[in-house]
Amino acid sequence: MKHCNLCPRRCNAVRENQNYGYCRSPWEITAARAALHMWEEPILSGTSGSGTVFFSGCNLGCVFCQNQTIAAGKTAMVISNEKLTDLFLMLQEKGAHNINLVTGSHYVPQIVKALERARNYNLTIPVVYNTGSYEKVQVLRLLDGLVDIYLPDMKYRSSKRSARYANAPDYFEVAAKALEEMVRQVGDPFVEDGLMKKGVIVRHLMLPGGMIDSKAILRYLHKTWGNHIYISIMNQYTPCNELPDYPELQRKLTEREYEKLIDYAAELGIEQGFIQEGETAEESFIPAFDYEGLK
User: Fold this and answer.
1) Which residue(s) pair with 4 in the sheet?
2) Closest CA relative to residue 236, chosen from 272, 260, 271, 203
3) pLDDT tens across the length of the chain (295 residues)
């Protein structure tokens, strides 16, 4: 890993020498928050919350990212591998229903070591891998047996859109292969007492004016995986950054846009899914990245 090729960008960056590559991350683990989180799907958050660790940096870098400060590496505290293990155990002690690893693609080798150590110290709750899905299958295989629940995004079907918004024209092909590996590892969903213990939940965030792409994604997911996965259709897009070069993204979704997509999902026959209701497209939905739990 001296010359980093952990993700499909294949930067070949020498991250240990401060050559951070596309993800803007050093080799040392950096994070912005470790705390109970109530804003995941109900079968993950439950009544006590999901024990989330928000890693800093991102290999995708969508222009509209709601977590821009951490994705760009602007909010980042260096933590040791031993500290990461301690965070997992601390969150379990606080009553977390699971350990939720948010955007950890560029730290998978370190995460593997921390999880193995935590299991030796009696980490017993499920582990969630929360990802934008721009992942290499070879790297995901390092997590086989350590991750119980995969929580991937399926952001784009159109290569033009993924190129425009994430500089990743190959996004769909990469994400589809990654999803196949995730399902292979954890199998069909298993939910007990209202909480997911194993399985895959695929998220899709609908973007303003993105109806055609969103419908294509739902068609693909349902045709390919049926009830072997859950599908979470999200309306929380928040135009929280100034995007003068992307005028189409400078508004929220309309209720009608989202309702039409939900109606389409029903027409397809999607049964295992989640939708969002009420006013979720607010900045208050985004947690404070103030290093909670890390100090």
Assistant:
1) 13
2) 203
3) 679 999 999 999 999 877 789 999 999 999 999 999 999 999 999 999 999 999 999 999 999 998 888 998 889 999 999 999 999 999 999 999 999 999 999 999 999 999 999 999 999 999 999 999 999 999 999 999 999 999 999 999 999 999 999 999 999 999 999 999 999 999 999 999 999 999 999 999 999 999 999 999 999 999 999 999 999 999 999 887 778 999 999 999 999 999 999 999 999 999 999 999 866 555 446 788 999 999 8
Six-digit token pair at 65? 């990212």
Write the CB contacts of 165 (distance below 8 Å, at least 6 apart in sequence). 62, 63, 64, 155, 156, 246
d(CA 123, CA 115): 8
From 257, 223, 218, select the one nearest 237 (Cα to Cα): 257
b/e burial code for range 180-204 (CB count within 10 A of at least 16 → b): ebbbebbeebeeeeebbbbbbbbbb
Q: Which residue, among 72, 123, 120, 69, has the nearest Cα to 101 in the 3D structure? A: 123
Calpha distance 64→71 (Å, rounded): 11
Amino acid identity of residue 28, one-letter, is E
The region, left, alpha or beta by phi > 0 then psi within -120 to 50, assigned to residue 130 is beta
Is 58 strand, coil or helix?
Answer: coil
